Amino acid sequence: MKIVKKLVDLKCAMMRFVCMISAMVMTAPVFADGTGDDVVGTFMSESLQGIFGSEAGFWKIFILADIGLSTIAAMKSKNPLVFTGVFITALVPVFLIKHYVFKG
User: What distance in Å separates the CA atoms of residue 14 and residue 5, rounded to the nearest whole number?
Assistant: First the structure.
């Protein structure tokens, strides 16, 4: 009985391995090869750079909205530390994204 169970487990493991390898072989042509003719990838990177890049107006609007939200939260709670907390919570990720993702 133990031998039959081990054979069934081995057969199941082999079937999973074969399925995994066949899935990898079938999806290999889908991935970009890095030669540079990826039109959609180039367009998306340029588009994202234009929207979220260092000189984009998105960050100015985002920071102004953050200051407004911080001010409203501080006035509503009557605690000036709320302004600092909300402001820093939104400003730190903005700085990290601009500095490390877009290197600008």
Answer: 14
